[in-house]
Design a protein that fits this description.
With 213 residues, the protein is an alpha+beta fold. Helix content is 28%, strand content 28%. The chain contains four helices and seven strands; from the N terminus they run ααβββαββββα. The chain has a seven-stranded antiparallel sheet. The relative contact order is 0.10.
Length: 213
């Protein structure tokens, strides 16, 4: 018999100590799978969004082209305003004004408008100044409140503005300002978003050139 008795044998299948770390399974990537019906609905939604955007663009472009901003750069090259005015005179009951503009100023469109609002015929043209400012000029012998409201885009009366002793009615809308006055046998309407100084120059020229009664 041995002097040192052997301790009890430990089975080979004995479990690991309680504080041993547990084994970690490798993480698996989860990929959602759409059903055929879900995939079809998603495609229909995307197609609907694309069609909606295209329709919006298709509607907006013609509106922009039909209604350009009243800026000098949106109009054509210089025109012979005196020539167009002489043609308009054949149908007018007043003398269409063809201004003698300062050097480097020019008229970039001119036309006779027949019966647009309340059957009122009027003469209009645009003036581009040397510093690229713009004035829209309208002239008629048959002005009335509805015509004035239309051509001024419902600008709001803002008192009286005097240019070299002549009173002009002042109207405003957003950044635009309008001067209105009767000189001789016609009413003149000047519109611009370039400031009163630009309008004053045009009003002063009209007062000098258009015969008074």
């Amino acid at each position: 018999m041995s002097e040192h008795p052997e301790g009890p044998a430990v089975p080979a299948s004995s479990s690991a100590p309680a504080d041993a770390p547990a084994s970690v399974e490798p993480e698996q990537n989860f990929k959602p799978v759409l059903t055929a019906a879900q995939s079809k609905r998603a495609n229909q939604t995307l197609k609907g969004m694309i069609i909606s955007v295209l329709l919006t663009v298709a509607v907006a472009i013609p509106v922009i082209l039909i209604n350009p901003a009243n800026k000098a750069e949106t109009f054509r090259d210089p025109v012979d305003v005196a020539d167009v005015a002489s043609q308009a005179a054949a149908d007018a009951n007043f003398v269409p004004w063809a201004p003698n503009l300062p050097a480097d100023d020019y008229v970039n469109f001119a036309r006779w408008v027949a019966g647009n609002v309340d059957g009122i015929k009027y003469w209009e043209f645009g003036v581009v100044t040397s510093d690229e400012k713009f004035v829209w000029v309208r002239q008629t012998a048959d002005s009335n409140p509805s015509w004035l409201a239309t051509v001024t885009e419902n600008a709001v009366p803002a008192g009286t503005h005097t240019v070299d002793g002549t009173d002009w009615e002042l109207r405003t809308k957003d950044k635009s300002q309008v001067l209105i006055s009767t000189i001789g046998d016609s009413t003149l309407v000047f519109s611009s978003d370039s400031g009163l100084e630009t309008l004053d120059s045009m009003a002063r020229l009209a007062q000098q050139e258009i015969p008074k009664k």
